[in-house]
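ok here's the first one, seq then C-alpha cells
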Amino acid sequence: MRIFVLLSRVPYPLEKGDKLRAFHQIRELSKKNEIILCALNPISNLDKQKAFRELQPYCLSINFLDLPPHVRVWNMFVSLFGKRPIQTGYFYNGKAARDIDRLIKTHKPNHLYCQFIRTTEYLKNYDIPKTLDYQDVLSYGMKRRMDKASFFAKPLFNLEYHRLLNYEAAIFNVFNNKTIISIPDQKLINHPEKDRIHVIPNGVDHDFFKPQNKEKKYDVVFTGNMGYPPNVDASEFLVNNIMPTVWKKHPNTKLLIAGASPARKVLSLRSSKVVISGWMDDIRDAYAESKIFIAPMRIGTGLQNKLLEAMSMKIPTITTSLANDALTAKNRQEILIGDSANELAENIIELMEDSTLNEKIAEAGYKFVQKNHSWEKATEKLNVIINS
C-alpha cells in the first residue's frame, strides 16, 4: 500500500515525542508499504540534508514544506477571530495546501495518515481512506496549562481549550480510523464513540537505549525538550520543591537536567548542584551517567518517552501518577510513584539509601519495557488498521 504521511514537524532530530513516534512508525510501516512523507517545517535553522539522509531509507518520496515565520504569526492572529484552534491555524498555509494537493495527485496514495489535529485541515476533504493519530489530547493538555496560567494569560488558554475540545470532537467523524497513545487519553476525547479510537502506544528502541556501564557523575537526572511547557514546569518543581528536601539529608546530591532548547526559566535553575546541559549529541549519556531518573510531570498528556528510555537503560525510575497513567507500571515494583514534592523527594532518598530497592526497581522496570513497549509490535497494529 502507498501511504501519504503528513506531519506538523520534520521527524528529525528526535528531540520531541511526536518526532520520535513519527520516525519509528515510518521506519516500521516502510517494511510493508511505500511511504510518501510530507512534513511541515516551522523551523528556519533545520538541517534538512541531515534529516533527509536519515529518512531516505524508509521513504519513496520526502517533502519538507516550509512555514515562514510571518505567515505563522499572521495565521495565529487571524485564528483569534475564527472558530478553529489557534494552533491549527498556526500550522495552516495556503501554499502548503496547494503543494500537498499536488503531491497527492502525483503519487496517488491509497491511504492518508496524519499526526495531530494540527494537520487535519489539509486532508479532511479528500475522498481517500484516512487515519488521524490524535497522539495526545491537546485540549486536556491545554486545560492543565490554563489552570496554572497567570491571571492575564488564562482567558487565552481558556479560549484555546474550548476550541480544541470542540475541534477534537468535530474532526472525529471525518477520518475512517483514529489512533491515540494511551487509554487515559482515549477516554478524554469528547466524543460519544471515543471507544472506537485505537490505542497505539509508543515503543522504545531497545537496541539503542540499552544498559551502559559508565561512571556515575550525577545522582538524579531529568530529560526532555526543555522548551516544552510541561517539562519547564516539571524542572521548576524538581529544583524548587523536591530537591531541597533531598539536599537537606544529602547536601552533595547532584542533579542533571538534560535536553534541547532549555527555556529561560530552566536556565535560571542552574547552580553548583544543578547542571543544565542543553542539547546533547547523545542523550544516552545523560541516563548512563546518572543513578536515578525522575519525571515529576504535573501537566501534559500522553506517554512519556523519557520514562521508556530510562527504564530500557535499566535506570531506577520515579514519576507521578499523571505520567504513569499512560505507562501503567506497578508502583514499588517496576517504578516509584509520588505526587507531592515530599513524596517524590522521599522516593529519591529511598533509592539513594536502599541499594536493594534500587536494583529491584531498575531490573523490574527494564523487564517491563522490554515486554510491553516495542516499536515493531506497536506499529504492526497500526499497519493492520491502515491496510484494513
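and now the second one, same deal
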Amino acid sequence: MKLQPVIGLEIHAQLSTKSKLWCSCDNDAHGAEPNSRVCPVCMGFPGMLPVLNEDARDKAAKGAAALGCEIQKFSKFDRKNYFYPDLPMGYQISQYDQPVALKGSVQFLLPGERDAHGNAGKMQTKKIRITRVHLENDSGKNTHVGTETLLDFNRSGTPLIEIVTEPELHSPEEARAFATELQKILRAVGASDADMEKGMMRFDASISLRPESEDKKLYARAEVKNLNSFAALEKALDFEIKRQTKLWEKKEAPTVESTRGWDDEKGETKLLRKKETADDYRYFPEPDLPPVTFDDDQIEEIKKSLPELPIEKFFRYKKEWKLAETDALILSSDPVLAQFFEKTVDLSDEPKAVAKLLLSVVLAHEDWKKTELTPKHVADTVRFLHKKNISSSGAKKVLGAAMKTGTKIETLMVEMRLEQVSDSGEIETWISDVLKENPDTVEQFRAGKEKVLGFLVGQVMKRSRGSANPEKVQEILRERLKK
C-alpha cells in the first residue's frame, strides 16, 4: 500500500512595527537585556487595558492581501485561554471565528526533476490555498537552566500574524518551498522581516498519512510545534513520515491527534501532549478591544498598494530579460536585491551582464547591502567590460574597491592600473619580450603542442600586470608564432 503525506502549516510571522501590539513598548527586543522592553500592559498587570496598534492592523491586512486573501470588513478579537509561565495575562488575545482575512492562495516554485545526468529540469509551479490569517500577540520566552526556568517577557505582546494553510502539501520539499515563498512575500510587501534567526518566523506543521487511493480522506494528524528554520521544518516532516509509515505498516495507524516537539540535536520528534481543540481554549470575545473594520475603499487601497510579488518578478525576468531560471530566482527573491538589479538594468540596458556581475561578484560579499556600492558602479563596470576597457578579473577587483570606498569606477581603474590595454604596439612589445625569454615553448607550439599557447598568454598578462586585453594578446601571439 502506497501512502501519501498530507501536510498543513500554521506560520507565525512577527509584524515589522516599531511598537508592540497592545502597548508602546519597543517591538525590537532582539539582543536586549531580559525584561527591559516591558510595561504594565504587556506584563498583564491588573487594570491595564490593551490598545490596538493600527500599524500592526494595516500590515496584517497588507500581508493577507499579498497572499490573495479576502480582507474582512469586520473582524474581532477573542481571548484564547491557556496557562503558560511566559504568558503573563493567563490568556492570549487572538482571533477565533472572525479573523482579519479568509480564503487566499499562494503560488510557489518547485525544482524540476533531475535527468539521468543530474541536470535540474524546468521549475514547476504549485498553488496552495490559505484558510485564514489572523492577528494575535506573542508570549514571552522560557530559558531552562538546570531545574529552574528563567522568564524573559521582552517578546510578550509582540504583534504576530498566524497564516493557516489547507492540508494540500504532500512532501517535506513542498512544505519548505512554500514556506520560503511565504517569507519572500511578507518581506516584499513590508509586512514582516521574517528573520528566523531572530525568531520572527516559526512554523507549526500538521502531518498525517493516507493511502493514495483515498485522496480526500484525512486521518489523525500529528502537529509538530515551533519549528524555527526551513531545515528544521523539512527534517521534522521527513522524520514524521518515516515514524507514521512504520505505524501504518504494523496496522497501528494513529487514531488520536497529538502535539509533538522537534529535537534538533537528536533529529526526532517527541510526544508532548494530546492535541488541543477549540473547546480546550474556551474562546470568548475580548471585552477590552473594539472590532477591526475596513470599508470597501480601504480594502481597495490596500490591494493597490501591493508591489510586484517575487514570483511575478521571477516570471518577468525570465520572459522580458531572458535570464536563466536559477538567476531569475535568486535576483527576484530579495526585494532589496531586486530593486538594485532593476535600477542597474535601467542604467545599462544589459540585464544578463548585470545579473552575471551581481551573482558572481557582488553577492560573494555577505554584507554587500551595507557597502558603498551603487547601481551606477555596477552599470559603469558593465559598460567598461562591454567596451573591453577592463578584464573580468579587473572588474571583480574594481567592484570590490568600490564597495569599500564608493569611488567612481573610472577613477578606480586608473588608480589600480586596471584599464585594459588593447593598443597593438604596446602588446607587441610585451609579446616580443616573452617570446625571446621562452624559445623552447615557442618551438613546442610550432611542433603542434597548441596547449602551450595558454602559458605564453599568461606570461604576457603577467608582464602587463593584467592590463593587456587577453583576446588581443592571443590574436597577436598566433600571428607571430606562424612566422
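notes on #2: Residues 230-249 form the longest helix (20 residues). Residues 424-482 form a domain with the Arc Repressor Mutant, subunit A fold (CATH 1.10.10.410).
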